[in-house]
Amino acid sequence: MIWALALTLGFAFVEAGTGWWANSLALMGDAGHMLTDAAALGIAAFAAWAMRRPASNRHTYGYARAELVAAFVNSLFMLGIVAAIAVAAIDRLRTPLPVSGEAVTGVALLGLIINLLVARLLHDDHGGHGGSADLNRRAAFLHVLGDLLGSVAAIAAGLIVTYTGWSWADPLLSLVICVLILFSSVSLVRQALHGLMDGTPLSLDLADIGRTLAGTEGVRSVHDLHVWALNSARVVLTAHVVVDDLAGWPEVLTRLKHATHTHFGIDHVTFQPEPANSPVRFMTRTIQEPSTIPARK
Fold first, then answer.
1. How far is CA 277 from the centre of its chain?
2. Which CATH architecture has domain 2-196?
3. Sign of torsion, CA 174 164 113 129?
4. Kind and range of the H or E element at 99?
5. What is the pLDDT of residues 59-105, one digit of tens each?
6. pTM for the complete prediction?
């Protein structure tokens, strides 16, 4: 990420200067993308460092949530850049300005090479961490993807302006790229915000988890089941488990841990055993054994 940050930040200034000289909105927009990419990579690198810090008395889970915070902030950055470029592009369509197509094409082509190199760096670093696509890295990669598309748009705009003189191609292609990036950015904002709100991971079904736990041998029912993600690679589960005989709890606990690991990949679990004949419980939702649950449609 540090190498990617250095390459991105350095070339952003080259593109910005050339874009201002050539009067190219596509090139200046691409430079703006690269500046926000530099900020995004800086935030992502800081989050990656923070995630490795050990737990403390103040933060008993450690700093795993830094990934979600970084992804959310970077996604908002991207939405802001998309909005700014879109407004500028619409204004340029209304009042076109002459564009130096040759300069735009040359610098955008070099920018494309730089962005491909940065994308490769992020991809290689990503593979070195077991191949899990964490939101923090996805957010940083989304910025780089935006730059890749921006460079392609700038190259196309430069070629069109050079050979046809149609200056409207520059802002029009910028709008196309904004639309493409918008969908990915909104999706990432939604996922990051869902995680920050302690939502059940989108890849998991709470009802399926409840049925699996309730169907474990020795379990009567399950209630107060909660599942949330500290980050994209670490999911936490807690539940109250009603059993017929507390004497057999060690064996039941082993089976429950095996079920959560095997079926859902969840290893950080906490189960509270309760005897079936205990007094009335305060509960949010009880899941009985599968034999008493209607089959899901």
1. 45
2. Up-down Bundle (1.20)
3. positive
4. none
5. 888 888 887 888 888 788 878 888 888 888 888 788 776 766 777 77
6. 0.67
Exposure string for 188-216, b = 16+ CB within 10 A, e = fewer: bbebbebbeeeebbeebeeeebbbbbbbb
The neighbour count for residue 146, using CB atoms within 10 Å, is 29
CATH architecture, range 206-292: 2-Layer Sandwich (3.30)
| Token representation of residue 264 | 């859902």
**pLDDT for position 33:** 65
Low-confidence ranges of the chain (pLDDT < 70): 24-27, 29-30, 32-34, 36, 97, 99-100, 123-136, 143, 278-297
Report the half-sphere exposure of 17 (CA within 13 A, side-chain side): 6
Q: Whole-angstrom Cα distance, residue 272 to residue 284? A: 15
Parallel, antiparallel or unpaired: strands 268-275 and 234-243: parallel
C-alpha span between 47 and 40 (Å, rounded): 10
Q: pLDDT at position 134, please? A: 66
